[in-house]
Amino acid sequence: MLNHYIIALKCYQYLGSPIKADKVDVSIKKYIAAIIGVDSKLDLKNYNKKTRKRHIKIIREYLKLNANKPDRRKIMKATALNAASTKENLADIINAVIDELIKSKFELPSFKRLVRLARAARTLVNNDNYMEIVSKLTDEQKQLIDTMIDLIIAEDKDLDYLSWVALKQEPKKPTTNNIKQ
User: Fold this and answer.
1) Which of 120, 150, 165, 171 lies at a C-alpha separation of 20 to 30 Å from 67?
2) Which of 70, 55, 60 is nearest to 105 (CA)?
């Protein structure tokens, strides 16, 4: 039974969240068994749910981890929104959330949950930024932007305007003909 506990503890310390003993790779089990000096042919099939729950509770107390999910959720949301206000990359937002959870002594959620949270925070912050920009535009500016977008869509190349597509093109070599154009 001690073997189960040690494997659960070491995986918990490394991953930041509990993992089922039967999900741990055989090579990791053998490595931990060699370190603690027990038989490397560990049989973890008889690790029942009650024992696992008791071990996780003991491990949380030993590592002084907070298992309060509502508090963890609040910290995750606040950190993700704060990070999304200065970072665009999902990995940066996720790392900020993980750092804060570790500092606050919380268990780490699944990676899928972190990705969903980071995407939602980034979308929320970006939408707020867009709405703030749009609210400050005058009607003339909005009309100008609409005209520019219409020029992108228009297939008529003989317009008197400078189209948005032309603005985005790389300049040609500075030959006499190209400079005249």
Assistant:
1) 120
2) 60
